[in-house]
Please model this.
Amino acid sequence: MLRRIALTAASAAALCAVPATAHADPGPLGLPQLFAKPAIQDRLQVSVTDTGDGRDGTYELECGPSGGTHPEPANACARLDELSANGRDPFAPLSPDTQCTMQYGGPATARVTGTWHGRPVDATYKRTNGCEISRWQGLVPVLPATGP
Model:
């Protein structure tokens, strides 16, 4: 019995001797935060065709941190962050009632799929009128600069 009391006392003393830095910081409810929340990484697949200048292909773009096979991941992620300011959707399609100039910017097309800010993305791009050309240009360098 004495031995059990001595072991219990020794265990309690050892626990009290743990440095303060080994304790978990309390969370918002005063409970220890045992596990860090994983950062959400944005992952997009960018497929481009018919650019006519050798930049066709499919690229992976990762943001938070920047990476993937995209030729300019840091610049592309920075542009998407800029376009996402104030909760805007950088991949929003044109409104169906938008009036656009009748001009042709070439046969290039692109599709962006994946996840951005925790939401699914499936957006298509073309250069068939003034609005679509502007929409494409607004997403450069996620999409390659192309056209006249």
